[in-house]
Amino acid sequence: MLTKRMEIELNKQINAEYWSAYFYLSMSAYLEEKGLAGAANWMRIQYQEEISHALKFFDYVVERGGKVRLQPIDEVPHSWNGIIDIFEETLKHEQKVTSLINSLMDIAIEERDHAAKSFLQWYVDEQVEEESGVQTLLDQLNMVEGKGNGLFLIDKDLGQRVFVDATKKD
Ligand code: FEO
Questions:
Q1: E strands along the chain, which residues?
Q2: For residues 17 and 46, what is the distance between their CA atoms, to the nearest angstrom?
Q3: CB under 8 Å, gap of 24 or more: what pairs does 43-46 form?
Q4: Which of 22, 32, 44, 9 shows the shortest CA–CA distance to 116?
Q5: Are the C-beta atoms of 20 and 53 separated by less than 8 Å?
Q6: How confident is the model at residue 1 (pLDDT cuts 50, 70, 90)?
Q7: What spacing in Å lies between the alpha carbon of 97 and ligand 1's midpoint?
Q8: By the 8 A CB rule, do 15 and 71 touch?
Q9: What is the C-alpha to C-alpha distance for residues 104 and 8, in angstroms, rounded to an integer?
Q10: How confident is the model at residue 169 (pLDDT cuts 50, 70, 90)?
Q11: Helix, strand, or coil here: 111?
């Protein structure tokens, strides 16, 4: 059984993951508008991954006998200053998510909830991948200054990304 505090905090994280999903879907629309179909695909997959992060928390709350309480999702930004700005904001956002996951881990430790600690470790590891993947992309975009042939090739590459369902990953 989850403690009340743990249940509240896990529900907040479900909402944060849905907000992330909206954030990236909004970026996908912007990139599509700018003719960057590959980057738009990458963001759409990112959106799907965030939904699966939310569902993984959802399933966990249910599994531990807690109550899921879905809250409204706040509005997300709709415009940016080009693709480099997009990926800079993505990196900043993922760093913020990492701090949310770390705070959740701190709470699990304070509540002496060893099961939650084990569950949250998946997200700790996932955030390392998230941040490093986005940093690599940002480095590549900065190398070509978000322009010309280089951008064309990066966009083509981003179009290859496929969805991996977090609820099915151990
Ligand atoms: Fe759900 Fe991008 O972290």
A1: none
A2: 11
A3: 43/86, 45/161, 45/162, 45/163, 46/90
A4: 9
A5: yes
A6: confident
A7: 6
A8: yes
A9: 11
A10: confident
A11: coil
- Going from the Cα of 112 to the center of ligand 1, the distance in angstroms, rounded, reads 25
Token code pair at residue 148: 């010309």
CATH of domain 4-70+78-162: 1.20.1260.10
Here the tokens at position 168 are 């099915």
pLDDT tens string 6-64: 999 999 999 999 999 999 999 999 999 999 999 999 999 999 999 999 999 999 999 99
Which residues are CB-neighbours of 62 under 8 A, at least 6 positions away? 68
Closest CA to 83 of 120, 37, 52, 125: 37
Q: 53: Cβ below 6 Å to ligand 1? A: yes
- Other Cβ atoms closer than 10 A to 77: 11
Q: Is 94 in the pocket of ligand 1 (CB under 6 A)?
A: yes
Euclidean distance between the first and final Cα of the chain, in Å? 22
Q: Which atom of ligand 1 is the closest one to the Cα of 46?
A: 2
Domain ranges of the chain: 4-70+78-162
CB 116 within 8 A of CB 56: no
Cβ proximity of 73 and 18 under 8 Å: yes
Ligand 1 geometric centre to CA of 142 (Å): 23
Instruction: Please give the mean pLDDT across all residues of the chain.
Output: 97
